[in-house]
Amino acid sequence: MSEYKMNEASDDDRIVIPDENGDEHLFQVLFTFDVDSTGNSYMVLAPEGSNESEEDEVEVHAFRYEEPEGGELSLYAIETDAEWDMVEELLNTFADGELEEEN
Q1: Contact between residue 27 and residue 17 where contact means Cβ atoms under 8 Å apart
Q2: CA 24 to chain centre
Q3: Phi–psi pair at 91, nearest 5 degrees
Q4: Which of 94, 101, 90, 100 is nearest to 3 (CA)?
Q5: d(CA 71, CA 20)
Q6: Residue 92: left (phi > 0), alpha (psi -120 to 50), or beta?
Q7: What distances in angstroms separate CA 15 from CA 24, 45, 55, one per listed residue?
Q8: Which of 23, 27, 21 has the alpha carbon at shortest distance from 73?
Q9: How far is CA 83 from the centre of its chain?
Q10: How far is CA 93 from CA 5, 12, 14, 23, 102, in A?
Q11: Cα first-last separation, the chain
Q12: Alpha-carbon distance 6 to 35, whole Å?
């Protein structure tokens, strides 16, 4: 059994994130995944509209998140190399799946 549970987002899954100046930015949720061994959940986002051109690389952002039942979504920075490695592995899996769908 896999340690990860990956959930692909629908086309209308979007999130607004304010930057350090209070300006709000719209992001498309690419996918979320849960890690069974830690109980943590992660979200991978891309700026809205950034994936419209297939020629350019898309900048993605990843966060650990918590969404308590009936509560607000909270995003947390990923700080450890182990977490980044795990996110990169899942991102590569997601990207490989996207490429296969196009062919």
Answers
A1: yes
A2: 18
A3: -65, -40
A4: 90
A5: 23
A6: alpha
A7: 10, 9, 24
A8: 27
A9: 13
A10: 12, 21, 21, 32, 15
A11: 29
A12: 9
* Structure tokens, 86: 């795990």
- In this structure, the chain runs to a length of 103
| Cβ-Cβ contacts under 8 Å for 18 (sequence gap 6 or more) | 24, 25
> What is the block-wise mean pLDDT of the chain (103 residues), using blocks of 10 residues?
63 84 92 87 87 69 90 91 88 71 55
What would the pLDDT profile of 39-66 be if each residue is shown by its tens digit?
A: 899 999 989 877 655 666 778 899 999 9
- Residue with structure tokens 């209308």? 12
**E strands present in 48-99:** 61-66, 74-76
